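Hi everyone, sorry if this is the wrong subforum. Our group has a chain we'd like a structural model of before ordering constructs, and none of us has done structure prediction before. Sequence below.
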Amino acid sequence: MWKTVRRAGRATAHLSAAAAMAFGAWIFITVLLITAVGTLVVVGVWLLPETVLLIRRIAGAKRSLTATWTGVRIPEAYQPLTGTVRERVVVAVRDPGTRTDARWLVAYWFYGALLALAVPLWPVGLVVDGLWCGLLGRRAVVLPLIVRLADLEADWSTALLKPSPQARLSARVRELAATRADAIAAHEAELRRIERDLHDGAQAQLVALSMRIGLARRAYGGDRDTGLQLLDEAQEQAEKALTELRQVVRGIHPPILSDRGLAGAVRALAAGSAVAVTVDDGGLDEGVRAPAAVEAAAYFAVAESLTNVVKYSGASRAEVRLTRVRRGLRVRVRDEGRGGADEARGSGLLGLRRRVAALDGTMEVSSPVGGPTVIEVELPCVW
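Answer:
Right subforum, don't worry. Here is the predicted structure as tokens:
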């Protein structure tokens, strides 16, 4: 009984908020009329995109209200209103999201008005239902009706506010264009890094090696001891060059991934970290492995995150969790450091985000000042 009463209370609050928004929507008609007149006389055409932005905010508030009741988020798909006044007006008129919001707003004027008119009747219904249950001992009737009315209102809002297939397609195209641009930028940055590492590392070592071998050849005939010493130095130089080359190769695709798999490679990262790291590999050692590109992105996500823990967080320990999810692989790194991680400060998070976006993955960073810092990456793949 009390569970029903609590749910009815939530339904009443939801319907009251919906009725209040409907009242506000009726007041908003004044703004629409001013915008229409201004657009017709051309002088106020700049009001059109601004009004569309206001409608987007109202629709967004309604989406949030509906999601609070249903527990399901209603997606939105809008084209950005940027550029000159003419460009903004054209986008505002042609955007499928504008038509979706306009359709919902017109419908909301009618069914929202019915909600507003019914508000005074809800308390009466609750009292009658209480008397009905208390005096006659019968099952509640009004409370479930209020809940069903809230469900019906939420269903209408969901159906009217969800983006059209055309809007979702446009949003997806823009998302893929942005992802492609990020992937190209990440690829170019990676190439520059490899070129810099080869030029400053292995190439410099090989040049020095060639010079030492030449000096050893000249000195060997006249001063054998000096020649042998130069050859020893050349050998050391060759070993350094090999080390530099191995580091460059690891930056492209770590060989340990091929040898041990993602779980083993992450455990090796944890063992070599300067802080204590606990690893929950989620049983990735068993079953089908993720594609090589996904494993590499997950490995670098963990490596970059642990590097940031050591450099910036001040934490003494960190946690790494690898999880198979229905749509792919999830990587989660957490530390209890000072927090405040910022992608704009050159911590490597921006490059990591681009690497993840190139695979159509997502990355979320939560790092309030004072900690904790949580980096969660989800990479799509088929198991």
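For your construct planning: The chain has twelve helices and five strands. Residues 255-380 form a domain with the Heat Shock Protein 90 fold (CATH 3.30.565.10).
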